[in-house]
Amino acid sequence: MNAQSGKYIIFIGVMLIVIGVVVYFFHDKLRWIGRLPGDIRIENDNSSFYFPITTMVLFSLLVSAILWLIKKL
Hints:
By secondary structure, this protein is mainly α. The chain folds into 2 domains: 1-31; 36-73. The chain has 2 helices and 2 strands. Strands 1-2 form a two-stranded antiparallel sheet. Strand 1 (40-43) and strand 2 form a beta hairpin. The chain is elongated, with a radius of gyration of 17 Å. It starts with a helix and ends with a helix.
């Protein structure tokens, strides 16, 4: 391990804390996550199946954009 690895670990830890605080305080405002058009949800009497395709594509684009910005800076 070198100093650069330590910086990445600290950055990931700070991002996890920020995400945790946002989810903790704004969980009632984030109900749209997982309910976007294109997310597959099948619920029966005894079982349920959930596959958030659109949500995962949206998060993937967001993370890719953030990493691209970090890389440019």
